[in-house]
Amino acid sequence: YQGISKMTTNLKNYIERASYLKAQQQLAHYRALKSQVNPHFLANALESIQMKAVINKQRDIAEMIGLLGQLFRITIQSGKETITLEEELTHIRLYIQVQQMRFGDKIQYIENLAPHSNSIHIVHFSLQPLVENAIIHGLEPMLGQGTLELSSTFSGKDLLIKIQDNGVGINPEQVQQLRDYLEESSNTLTEEHIGLKNVHEQIRYYFGNKYGITIDSVLGEGTTLTVRIPALS
C-alpha cells in the first residue's frame, strides 16, 4: 500500500511538473511569435514612409510619421496579451490611415460592428496582420479602388470578426493550401510567411482549438478572413 501510495504521489508530481513546463513552453512560443509579427509590420510601414518621402517630398510625411509613432506607442505601451476589440480597432484605424496616405483613394475602409461587441476581449495585435494581408495581397494588386470591411457578429456564445476585401481573390487550390497550412502542426518560427499562422495559433493558445481563423475566397471577387473567438468581456 505504501509503495502504491508513493508511486501515485510521484506520478502526480511528475504530471504537474510536465504540465507546468508545457505551459511555459507554449507561453514562450507565443511570445516569440508575437515578437516576430511586430517587426514584420514595422518593416512594411517604414517602406511606405520611405517611398512616400522619395516620390512626393511633401508635408504630409510629417503626418504619416506621426501616425506611425502613435501605432508604435499603442503596440508597446500595453503589456496585456488580450485587449478589447475597441482597443484593437484604435490600432487598426491608425494603420488604415497610414495605408490611405500611401495609396490615396485606392482603399476604402468600412466598419460594421454588432452592438456591444467592442467590449469583447481578443488577442492583442491579432487583427492588424490580417488587415495588412488583405491590403497587400487583395487590394494592392487590383486596378482601381478597393474596399476593406471589418465587421463583427455574435454567433451563440462566440464572436465572429470578418475582414473582407473585394480584391483579386485566391484560386481554389491556394485556398485549400492555406486552410491545410493553418491546421498543420509546424514550427512557424522557421517559416517565411508567419502572420496568418501566428494569429491563428495565438487565438487557439488562448481560447482553445475550436477557435481561430477560417478563409474563404473567390478568384477575381475577393477574400474573407473570419476570426472566431469566445464572446468574453
If you had to describe this structure to a student in words, what would you say it looks like?
- Helix 1 packs antiparallel against helix 6 (195-207) and helix 2 (60-77) runs antiparallel to helix 3.
- The strands form two sheets. Strands 2-4-5-7-6 form a five-stranded mixed beta sheet. Strands 1-3 form a two-stranded antiparallel sheet.
- It has six helices and seven strands, in the order H-H-E-H-E-E-H-E-E-H-H-E-E.
- It has 233 residues and is of the alpha+beta class.
- The chain has helices at 2-55, 60-77, 85-103, 128-139, 172-183, 195-207; strands at 82-84, 107-113, 121-123, 146-155, 158-165, 212-218, 222-230.
- It starts with a helix and ends with a strand.
- It has a single domain, classed as 2-Layer Sandwich (Heat Shock Protein 90), CATH 3.30.565.
